[in-house]
Every structure is written in structure tokens, then in C-alpha cells.
Design goal:
Elements (H helix, E strand, L loop, with lengths): L1 E6 L17 H4 L4 H9 L9 E6 L9 H10 L6 E7 L8 E8 L11 E7 L2 H19 L1 H4 L9 H73 L19
Antiparallel strand pairs: 1-2, 2-3, 3-4, 4-5
Helix pairs in contact: 3-4
Amino acid sequence: MIWKTHETRRRQSHLGDSGDRLRHPAERGFISGGLYAAMVASGMEPNEPINTKFYQLGNGGSLIFEHDLNALSDFLERPHPEFHGIQVDDTPGGELQWIITADLRGKMEPPTSERILFSFRESNWLDGLAHGLQEALARLCGQNVVRILASRFAHLTQKDLDATRAYANQTHAHIVEQGEAIKLLNNDRKSLRQQRAKKDATIVRLRAKIASLEATVKAQEDQIRELEDDDGGIDLQGGCGDPAYHCMV
């Protein structure tokens, strides 16, 4: 796996003796003229890059689709595919993006094969590599569908890759949905715990209030009985001490 990174900054030293900035990154040596021409043709002419990266297959990497793409390239006797990336900030919102160009050079010896060159944008370099590897594999299969039909690479067809994309998208959506469901469940559990704690606190408070009221009632009853005894048996709670007399209201 080969990684090459060039960090650049917009400094005055980038200007020539005449003070004119070089016209495009190809003149600065960040990307080749052929790749720059391909970007312009696809409507992706880059501004001065903030960062550049380079990735070449055939060096023991283990990215998704890398093994299949490298093996298929070897089978077709093509050079190892290369991916060139430049990071720019040319979006209206100022977000940094990567312009990634996939370069699948063709076979030079007869029978020769056509070069595959395409560019696209991604917000993340590694995500862009995964996208580029998948698309490169799909295009290489499409270009050589007849040659690979009778080989061990027959399963690597555009249809299969489309199904893989759909499955990956579906799986990603399912994972996102599961994550949202787990988040909702955690929020519900937290809410239930809070409600239960509030309910338990209310029960404890009510029990304490009931116990206080019961103690107050008992104290009042004891006080009334003491007053009845002191008044010669007069029932202060609603009756007379002597049943032979009618109580006067």
C-alpha cells in the first residue's frame, strides 16, 4: 500500500516572479496533465489543492473491493489501478471536499486494452477510495465482460455490483434504523426510570403525611378521653357519660 501526501498552504511563495499564480494544479506538479484534462472534461476542474493523496493497488492493501479489483487487473494483464485525490474548498458553503480520480491504465502489449479514467467528489478520502474501488471494479467488469464470463471472475458483473450496492445501502439504512430505535428505547427507559423515581418519592411523601395525620388523630383522641375523664364521664365525642340522661345539644 502506497500513500503519498503533500500538504500545501496558500502563501505568497506560491506566486511566480511576475506575481501571477500558476493556472492549475497540473502546472504545480500535484497531478498529471492527463488527470487534470480528465477532470476538466468531467466538469471537475479543481482549485489550488489544500492536500493531495495517492493510492496504488498491488501493495498489500485491504480496502473493500481492493482484492477483487487487483486480482482482476492481474488477470487482464493490466497495470495496478491508481487513485489520485486532491482536497479543495471550492463549495459555496466552504466545506472541504475531495476530488478523486481513478486511473485504470490499459494493457500496452497486444491485445491492448482501453484506459479507464473517471473522477468524482467525496467529502472523505477513505469513503472516496471505497467508492472509487467499487466503481472501478464495475467499469472494468463492464469493459471486459466477455473475457471474464468463463473465468473465476464471472461473478464480478455490473449486475452483481449493483446488487451489492443495493444490499449495502439497505444494510446501512437498516443499521441507521436500528440505531435510532435503540436511541428511542434508551430515551423511553430513562423516562420510565424518572417517572418511577418520581412515583416512589410521591408514595414515600404520602406515607409520611398519612403517618403524621394518624399520629395527630391519635393524640387528639387521647386528649379527648382525658377531658372526658376530668368532666365526670361526659362523652365529648358525641354521647353522654350516663345513659339515663338525655344529652343536651
